[in-house]
Write a structure and sequence with these properties.
This is DUF4190 domain-containing protein. The chain is mainly alpha-helical. Helix content is about 60%, strand content about 5%.
Length: about 190
């Protein structure tokens, strides 16, 4: 059984040897071959030929080396260093939850005072969450930033509600009760 790649390489070696013998005979007879022919034979064989070195200063000729086979070295896979797995910051997640609660409390109107207090706590937790996510392998910076915005927004909006600066919502208005009555009116006959 013949393996094609080995057979092809053997044929290329035989052609190289025949060419080298003909070349040696040609030089002996005074025939000169072109460098392009030498390169073509080297390329056909899949090898890189080493050129002849000039004669050294003391007159000793250097040896002509034959074609050099290319060596393919197997490459090892690159292993990336792995550290501890990234984890989410508990403080950032807690700040986000309290921020959503504070924003909803302020929007009710009746619970605006509690929403302001929860918004202040959210802002402090969000700042702690931002500092906690500075460490390597601790995720949750976007959660902390969103909680910070929600907390500040709840405080500012809650102050506007408590001071009765907004016409559509006030501490005396019960927006949750109004929403419940509206939903009851819409779904009385459907369920």
């Amino acid at each position: 059984m013949r393996i094609p790649s080995l057979t092809h390489r053997g044929e290329a070696q035989r052609e190289e040897e025949v060419h080298a013998q003909g070349k040696a005979e040609g030089r002996a007879e005074g025939r000169a071959e072109t460098k392009a022919e030498e390169r073509a034979v080297g390329r056909a064989a899949g090898r890189t030929a080493v050129r002849e070195r000039p004669v050294t200063g003391d007159g000793t000729p250097t040896e002509r080396r034959g074609p050099v086979e290319r060596v393919d070295t197997p490459r090892e896979p690159v292993v990336e260093p792995s550290g501890p797995r990234p984890r989410s910051s508990l403080v950032a997640a807690l700040a986000l939850v309290v921020g959503v609660v504070s924003a909803l409390a302020v929007l009710t109107g009746t619970l605006a005072g509690y929403g302001i207090a929860a918004g202040a706590v959210t802002t402090l937790l969000a700042i702690a969450g931002i500092f906690a996510t500075r460490r390597r392998h601790v995720a949750g910076r976007s959660e902390a930033m969103l909680a910070f915005v929600l907390g500040l927004g709840a405080v500012v909006f809650g102050i506007l509600v408590v001071t009765d600066s907004l016409a559509w919502i006030s501490p005396a208005s019960d927006k949750v009760g109004e929403l419940r009555e509206w939903l009851d009116a819409q779904t009385v006959d459907r369920f």
